[in-house]
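Problem statement: downstream parser choked on a complex file, so we are re-checking the raw output for the adenosine-5'-triphosphate run. The parser issue turned out to be on our end (a line-ending mismatch), but while we're here, posting the original submission so the record is complete.
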Amino acid sequence: MIKPSETSVSLETLVSLCKRRGFVFPAADIYGGINGVYDFGPLGTLMKKNIRKAWLTSLENKWGSVVELEGSLLAPEAVWKASGHVEGFHDPMIDCKNCKHRYRADDTDLSKGCPHCGKNDWTEVRNFNMMFKTQLGALEGASSTCYLRPETAQAIFVNFKNVLSTCRVKVPFGIAQAGKSFRNEITPKQFLFRMREFEQMEIEWFCKPETSNDFLQQWIDHRLAFYKAIGISSEKIRVREHTKDELAHYAARCVDVEYLFPFGWKEIEGIAHRGAFDLTQHSNHSGKDLAVFDEETKESYMPHVVEASVGTDRLFLTLLYDSYFEDEVEGEKRIVLKIDPTIAPITAAFMPLVKKLSEPVEKLYHAAKRAGLSVQVDDSGASIGKRYRRQDEIGTPFCITYDFESEQDHCVTVRHRDTTKQERIAIEKLMDYLHSHLTKGTRNA
Ligand code: ATP
């Protein structure tokens, strides 16, 4: 097995694979695209659903319950004033006076001159707020100003009491949310790594203050187990503690889970001890008491929060980088995505050896659909080898061929993506066989 080099599959290769095979397209592609915004095609949509499902499954844990929320994308200015985003959610921006290109000042080596024109003639560094601001309705004025959310977390905090009073939950418990966030990034780049519209999967874990440090460590361990369970190379995952001057305004402690991309170690998930910051801020700003009453001590207290926040699209990109291999099978080069079966968009592709055998294959396909599997039929006239390679390129773990012998022995050939090994399996055992391969992954988290 040859991997081009440990971290060197190029971004262009992945972007082109994503477009060619229907994973990801530039948004508004036929109009030339829009910077930092992408559409997910049929395979990308399936894979994203699987990522979300694996994430949610991994959150079920022994320390308490987790409920889900779907908050609004728009929220009034008051929410973002309380959260600190109006005041502090900005990046430092700088312009080249010569060619007018704009950069993030903390992400550019200014001493080397403008990366575009080479001149060393900069404007002052200014703060640029990254929230998308808009107006509700026809009335202008502060009362109708709102923002597209730059993170999903605040919808969880403002609904804390609603959830507590309507669901059978008690501290400690978690509220999880997967949904879109919007940031007007100064320089969106590296494809799905830094986008302007992206998805986050966040859990806010509410607990008693004296337990919060322990829970932070438990969440770090739990999240690392998740990455292992979905098959990401352990040697390319690390945890990095934030230094004091790096800490966000709300955080008492924060660690980043980082992945070794070809462009360096970069954050894929942030795990933060947010203390009582958010609930206290929203209590003060809204005038609604968000403290909880402790039945044992008969006292009110503000719960502490441990947050684990990962970008769905950034994780999607991580999975592509981590699973992309090129090797040779029977003298022919192939591209293979060795994605965990729980995440792969298609679990199995059914193939009649010749078109004449399409009918029983259709039956197998429908049985697999009824069994809840994500499957495809490839009954094109191409050779079996060519059909295998097409499936390898989109990460399908199993190719199932129905041949003339199948008519007699009621068995099919199952071909494994990673080893290319083949085995005969009885048709009546096939669905159980496929399901059993889908029960690994997040179960181990
Ligand atoms: P970065 O330092 O990379 O800008 P951040 O620290 O601002 O990230 P958080 O606010 O902690 O990010 O968001 C949690 C997660 O959301 C990140 O770990 C990342 O996976 C994802 N994320 C944040 N910004 C973007 C973006 N512009 N595009 C895609 N994913 C993002």
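For whoever reads this later: Residues 4-89+130-320 form a domain with the BirA Bifunctional Protein; domain 2 fold (CATH 3.30.930.10).
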